[in-house]
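[scheduler] slot 2 assigned
[scheduler] job type: sequence-to-structure, two independent chains
[scheduler] chain ordering preserved from manifest
[runner] begin chain α
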Amino acid sequence: QVLLVESGGGSVQSGGSLRLSCAASGDTNSTNCMGWFRQAPGKEREGVAAVFGGGTGLYYRDFVEGRFTISQDIAKNTVYLQMNSLKPEDTAMYYCAASPFPGKCTMVVGTRYWGQGTQVTVSS
């Protein structure tokens, strides 16, 4: 069993920054891949970023590359998402995700565990 708890969401103006955190507890061997997804109202859940392989593997969607940075504190079983230059289209519920298999938390179908989400709202 793995529990994922997100924090750090909030409301910011366009161009602002937020840092999301996801703390994992339970079977740490089941969190070899950890990442972030987001889902806006009426939209499908989509991958944002992920880290796996002890930090050797990184994944970013095109729309976040250059603005967002994912990082991991392995000792604390925590993954972070630093989001800069936020845009209104970034508004969504952001979910933490984990999988026992490297690279498998980059897609919804590959994700084993989910957090409850943290809301990010960006105003123009």
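[runner] end chain α
[runner] begin chain β
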Amino acid sequence: QVQLVESGGGLVQPGGSLRLSCAASGSILSIYDMGWYRQAPGKQRELVARITSGGSRDYKDSVKGRFTISRDNAKNTVYLQMNSLKPEDTAVYYCNLEIQITTGQVRAYWGQGTQVTVSS
């Protein structure tokens, strides 16, 4: 059994910052790729940023230079620091972690989602 708990969303003005966190707990052996996705109303869920177990990072073009993904392996936690936020960043943000559990099985787990609203 694995649980993912997200936090850090909210309402912010354009140009502001937010930091999202996603902490995993339960029967975890290892965590491989960690990622953040978002879904705006009427749109498909899209990958925003991803970090591998080795620390390599990928970003959606529109967030490069503004968002930073990081991970704390000791805490089984992934973060998304979002700066210079724009109204078009408004969406529900979901973390996605590739986790190996104690049975040896590897699968992707989703967080519950956290709303980010950028508006004046």
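[runner] end chain β
[qc] chain β: The first strand starts at residue 2 and ends at 7.
[scheduler] slot 2 released
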